[in-house]
Amino acid sequence: MPSRLNPYISFDGSARQAMEFYKGIFGGTLSVHTYGDFGGKEAGDAADKIMHSMLETDSGFTLMGADVPPGMEHKPGNNISVSLSGDDADELRGYWNKLSGDGTVSVPLDKQMWGDVFGMCTDRFGITWLVNISEQQT
C-alpha cells in the first residue's frame, strides 16, 4: 500500500453523527469501531463512543474521525481546514450545499479574483471546509 495523507478529525462525542453525515455527502464505505469494541467493560461510559472511524469514497477521498479518548480534553481550534478542489463544478457545488446547509458560511461560494469559484464554511460539527472549483481546461 502506498503512503497517503488524509484528515483525522477529533470530536467531543459526535463522531458517529459527523461521520455518517459525511458519508451521506460523499458516499463510500464507513467503518466504525467504538471504545467498547476494544476495551470491553473497561471502556465504561465511553463504550459507545467512536475510537476510530474511516470513510473511504469512490472518488478516492479518505476521512478519519474519532471521539476524544476518555480523560482527554477536546480542544478544537482554527489551525486546520479540510479542502475540496477540482474542476467538476456540479460535484463540488453539491458537496458545498450539503456541508454549508446547516453550517455557517464565512466566504460565499463565488468567483474569486484568482479566477476560480471558492467558498469557505464551517459545518454543523464545527469543521471548516474550503471548496475551490477550478475552471476546466479546454
TrEMBL record:
Domain Glyoxalase/fosfomycin resistance/dioxygenase: 5-129
InterPro entries: Glyas_Bleomycin-R_OHBP_Dase, Glyas_Fos-R_dOase_dom, PhnB-like
Gene3D superfamilies: 2,3-Dihydroxybiphenyl 1,2-Dioxygenase, domain 1
Domain of life: Bacteria
Pfam family, one: Glyoxalase
Segments passing through the bilayer: none
Protein known as: VOC family protein
Lineage: Bacteria, Bacillati, Actinomycetota, Actinomycetes, Kitasatosporales
